């Protein structure tokens, strides 16, 4: 578990370094002024909080006498930090994409895929809890995509209807067969 927390702390630090580098090289603006924009500040604060939480969790689980009940609580805290990081990344990418035509819902979807992988493969939680976490991560991404990208709403709804239409036909066929 300490290796997973080290990986997550490294990920948060790497994202922080990338954020700082992007803010330094952006349009000759002052660093603090650019950092003060809400989307940048929210991501920076979230990254700092995540690193602090991961460091505290490493200190907490390093003591002897840890059992699986404690590990489940630690995993729950990690899932909450991953959700907070996902929301902050989604907001950051949404506002960045409006200015530079990069990021967007697809870029945020890669973060969601990574966080779902973390929940399923690397955290010591039951499969039921990992599935619930995956559903919550996916719903948070979909809600964020619909709220943060209203200009792409028709295309997203068309994609959702393309996915749901075959399911609807199968449901109707099953009802008619009965």
UniProtKB/TrEMBL annotation:
- Note one Pfam family from the annotation: AC_N
Disulfide bond recorded as keyword:
no
Q: Any transmembrane segments, and where?
A: 41-62, 69-95, 107-123, 130-149
Q: Which InterPro entries match?
A: AC_N
Q: Does the keyword Transmembrane helix apply?
A: yes
Q: What keywords appear on the UniProt entry? A: Membrane, Transmembrane, Transmembrane helix
> Per the database record, which ranges form the Adenylate cyclase N-terminal domain?
35-151
Which protein is depicted? Adenylate cyclase N-terminal domain-containing protein
Q: Which organism is it from?
A: Melipona bicolor
């Amino acid at each position: 578990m300490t290796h997973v927390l080290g990986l997550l702390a490294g990920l948060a630090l790497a994202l922080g370094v990338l954020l700082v580098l992007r803010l330094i090289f952006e349009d000759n603006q002052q660093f603090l002024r650019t950092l003060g924009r809400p989307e940048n500040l929210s991501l920076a604060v979230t990254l700092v909080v995540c690193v602090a939480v991961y460091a505290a969790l490493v200190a907490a689980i390093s003591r002897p006498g840890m059992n699986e009940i404690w590990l489940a609580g630690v995993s729950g805290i990690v899932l909450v930090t991953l959700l907070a990081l996902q929301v902050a990344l989604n907001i950051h990418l949404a506002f960045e994409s409006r200015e530079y035509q990069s990021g967007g819902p697809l870029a945020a979807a890669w973060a969601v895929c990574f966080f779902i992988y973390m929940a399923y493969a690397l955290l010591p939680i039951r499969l039921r809890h990992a599935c619930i976490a995956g559903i919550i991560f996916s719903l948070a991404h979909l809600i964020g995509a619909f709220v943060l990208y209203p200009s792409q709403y028709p295309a997203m709804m068309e994609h959702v209807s393309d996915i749901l239409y075959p399911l609807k036909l199968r449901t109707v066929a099953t009802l008619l067969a009965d």
